UniProtKB/TrEMBL annotation:
Protein name from the UniProt record: SDR family NAD(P)-dependent oxidoreductase
Domain of life: Bacteria
UniProt-listed InterPro entries: Fungal_SecMetab_SDRs, NAD(P)-bd_dom_sf, SDR_fam
Keyword Transmembrane belongs to the record: yes
Key word Glycoprotein present: no
Organism: Halobacteriovorax vibrionivorans
UniProt keywords, alphabetically: Membrane, Transmembrane, Transmembrane helix
PANTHER family, alphabetized: NAD(P)-BINDING ROSSMANN-FOLD SUPERFAMILY PROTEIN, SHORT-CHAIN DEHYDROGENASE/REDUCTASE
TM ranges: 12-30
Short name of any one Pfam family annotated for the protein: adh_short
Length: 254
């Protein structure tokens, strides 16, 4: 049996305040009139568009403020969803960082900094295993579900041809290994769940904003990326679990 978006009753989108996560929430609300969505954000000042959807979709959208990099907050979210006694059909982790006010991706080794490396690693790699740990038992076990994480092609070790961006690359490579390992554990314990790492393609967001001028890749708006990601996960089945997929459905090398 494959995953069908039109049978997706409950979805959890983590990191939905803006960017690709917001695009996914919006696309799911518009495309699938039966899907109920729980969407998380961290910074209220960045989540205005998400919060403004609440009045239009009050029966189908629940917005929750958490810092998903903190296990206690993921655990509380999991407990509150457990109380509702629902099975999640879709979980997508959209959290990620490339830069912030203090951190820029490294052009070369002279820019490498231990604290920055640890912070990028923390934000980009730990949310996915925490979600898998605390939501494993809440994935719908009656039908095929999807547990996906937005990764990045630059995390592919085989595909690394131009170097640079040490911390971001390493954090996404670590994330990819975590996803692959979760997929293996879930084939034993959560057989109907398809676990995927998805490269969203270059997308106009805060994360890409400082670098987008120089890219030679096709640039997508968030609504295009959201639609691409939903197309990539549609119809996936147990044969696909543990794959690293690009926005155009191509399989990427780890
Ligand atoms: N845009 C691209 O071209 C592109 C390409 C390849 C991969 N990706 C990946 O796509 C995913 C989504 O990124 P995006 O492009 O949509 O960027 P974005 O708009 O900057 O969104 C990043 C998300 O991560 C959260 N976040 C950032 N720092 C955080 C921290 N320290 N603690 C907790 N949450 C934090 C943000 O929430 P708050 O603002 O509320 O903190 C937001 O929800 C990321 O994993 C990124 O690596 C993006």
């Amino acid at each position: 049996m494959s995953f069908r978006l039109n049978s997706c009753n409950y979805a959890l989108i983590v990191g939905a305040g803006h960017g690709i996560g917001f695009g996914l929430v919006h696309a799911l609300l518009v495309k699938n009139s039966k899907t109920r969505i729980m969407a998380t954000y961290r910074k209220r000042e960045n989540a205005e568009k998400l919060l403004s959807l609440q009045s239009e979709y009050k029966d189908r959208l629940e917005i929750i403020q958490i810092d998903a990099t903190k296990e206690s907050e993921i655990c509380n979210l999991s407990n509150s969803i457990k109380e509702k006694n629902i099975g999640l059909d879709l979980i997508i982790n959209c959290i990620g960082m490339l830069h912030n006010d203090d951190i820029l991706p490294e052009k070369s080794l002279k820019d490498f900094n231990c604290e920055a490396f640890i912070e990028v690693m923390r934000v980009n790699s730990i949310v996915t295993p925490l979600l898998a740990k605390h939501f494993e038992k809440q994935l719908n076990n009656d039908v095929t579900s999807v547990f996906a994480t937005i990764s990045a092609k630059v995390g592919s070790i085989e595909d690394n041809r131009i170097g640079g961006w040490y911390s971001y690359r390493a954090s996404k490579a670590a994330l990819n290994m975590l996803i692959k390992t979760i997929a293996i554990e879930f084939t034993r314990k959560r057989k109907k769940c398809v676990v995927l790492a998805v490269h969203p393609g270059t997308t106009k967001t805060e994360l890409s904003q400082p670098f987008i001028k120089r890219t030679t890749y096709k640039i997508h708006e968030t609504h295009e990326t959201a639609s691409n990601i939903l197309n990539v996960i549609e119809n996936r089945d147990s044969h696909d679990t543990g794959k690293f997929l690009s926005w155009d459905a191509q399989e990427l090398p780890w």
